[in-house]
Amino acid sequence: MKFTVAVDGPAAAGKGTVARAIAAEFGFAHLDTGLLYRAVGRRVLEGVPPEIAASTLRHGDVVRDGLRAPEVSRAASEVAALPDVRQALVEFQREFAGRDGGAVLDGRDIGTVICPDAEAKLFVIASDATRAHRRWLELTAAGHDVTEAGVLDDIRERDARDAGRRDAPMKAASDAVVLDTSDLDVEEAAAFALEVVRTRLEGREGV
Ligand code: CDP
Q1: What number is the average pLDDT over the span 158-165?
Q2: What CATH number belongs to 4-199?
Q3: Among 21-25, 28-32, 123-127, 201-205, where is mean pLDDT lowest?
Q4: How far is the CA of 177 from the centre of ligand 1 (A)?
């Protein structure tokens, strides 16, 4: 069975949490596409030209430590604006999405560019203050010395770059269900997302 779930949205809105819950509930494979861009950004910080970094990306690059560091987030967003980098990553993502047994991908352009025919699409948002607070908690827990105000500036800058780029800008697909997690805890956000996917799955089985 092919069944693809696209989960898009701005930085630190809760896409990963929602995508993991969907994968666990329905037994789908999960791909955090942000990690691909983070891995490319990381190699670029080490001096590799962006197009080379993207076209020679290996599994080992996306499971390295430190990919969530603030400087890697920024580098990821910068390389993500380059059409050659995005192009180099399209095929892998589409193959993953089409795998037998179902797949959920989270990112910025999954429902619009990578998988416009995805069976279920979610666009996850949250207020800037909520997102900054959550990301600050994650980063400080991981040992990064950051302030909440600094994290807020970083995610705003990244969102503006991601939404403003010419190639595959971050935006909600016209058929995406918007999920605002500002006032929801993890269980509530997951429950909402699971219901959206369940409805689509049932609709499909009835065809
Ligand atoms: O976890 P967070 O939401 O902060 O970011 P991420 O999903 O790991 O993505 C890091 C960066 O990669 C984003 O700021 C985008 O610039 C880029 N990205 C993208 O352009 N397209 C995707 N499908 C996924 C990520």
Answers
A1: 98
A2: 3.40.50.300
A3: 201-205
A4: 19
In angstroms, what is the span from residue 108 Cα to ligand 1's centroid? Answer: 6
pLDDT score for 206: 59
| pLDDT computed for residue 142 by the predictor | 95
Predicted pLDDT of residue 204: 84
The proportion of the chain whose per-residue pLDDT surpasses 90, expressed as a percent, equals 97
Binding-site residues, ligand 1, Cβ < 6 A: 11-12, 33-34, 37-38, 73, 76-77, 80, 107-110, 158, 162
pLDDT of amino acid 1: 86
**What pLDDT does 199 receive?**
97
Pocket test of ligand 1: the residue of 33, 36, 82 to mutate, having most ligand atoms within 8 Å of its CB, is 33
Q: What is the mean pLDDT of residues 36-43?
A: 98
Atom of ligand 1 nearest to the CA of 162: 16
CA of 1 to the centre of ligand 1 (A): 28
DSSP assignments along the chain, one per residue: ---EEEEE-STTSSHHHHHHHHHHHHT-EEEETHHHHHHHHHHHHTT--HHHHHHT--HHHHT-TTTTSHHHHHHHHHHTT-HHHHHHHHHHHHHHHT-TT-EEEEESSIIIII-TT-SEEEEEE--HHHHHHHHHHHHHHTT----HHHHHHHHHHHHHHHHH-SSS-----TTPEEEE-TT--HHHHHHHHHHHHHHHHHHHHT-
